[in-house]
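Trying the structure run again after the queue cleared.
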Amino acid sequence: MLAVSDLHMGYADNRQVVDRLQPTTDQDWLLVAGDVGEVAEQIQRTLATLRSRFSTVVWVPGNHELWSHNSDPLSLRGDYRYQHLVRLCRDIGVLTPEDPYPVWTGDGGPVTVAPLFLLYDYTFRPPGVDTQEAALALAYETGIVCTDEQLLHPDPYPSREAWCRARVEYTMRRLDARDPEIPTVLVNHYPLTRLPTLILRYPEFAQWCGTELTADWHQRYAAKTVVYGHLHIPRTTFEDGTRFEEVSLGYPREWRGRSQPRQWPRQILPVPA
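Done. Tokens:
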């Protein structure tokens, strides 16, 4: 089982990297933790190519897939756009957060692979900032403002945080109904806990990176591994004995500049030595 995220296929250099992405066996799974691209047709085409190579492909949306802007002929916004992307994935045999959770029975299994779509609710605020309004004001004052504020619309929900809360409640019902005897691999675009955001160069950006509502999910749902992206800081960490894998490729200026050899895609199961 391998995992990637933040392919950002609008960049020619990233497309070359993804063109070389191949399974090691004909039974390999690929978990894609969001930000494939920003144009619906390119998202579907990329996922279809990966599905032709891998035995199973599981996708969750990132914030970039949910952007609505003039470069995409698809004019749908918010949840309507998300549901359209789900239908595109089903047309090509790619699993989504709306499908039954698959069970991996290969080496390291069995585990229930749970793709999640949860968004964020501005609760990952900088230290000493007590309210969402103050956190946003600080972000605008410092110039560290996520493009979501202009391009990620919550339709039909009144706000992104309301959409997030609805997704958390819906997802909890689904996770609570799974077989509790089987551990999980949780796959989300955003980190499930605040800890991975503490190394951000600009702490103001953390408010667009998750929700405190999921802080205990790695324990509550017996996660062997939590897979996420979004931060563009690929690394392995541990919380409460649970392994967390940030699996992003990121922008060319980022992955070219890394001093350490890139370990991408990341192997999730069997757990590497």
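Residues 224 and 241 are 9 Å apart (CA to CA). Worth checking whether this holds up in the mutant runs.
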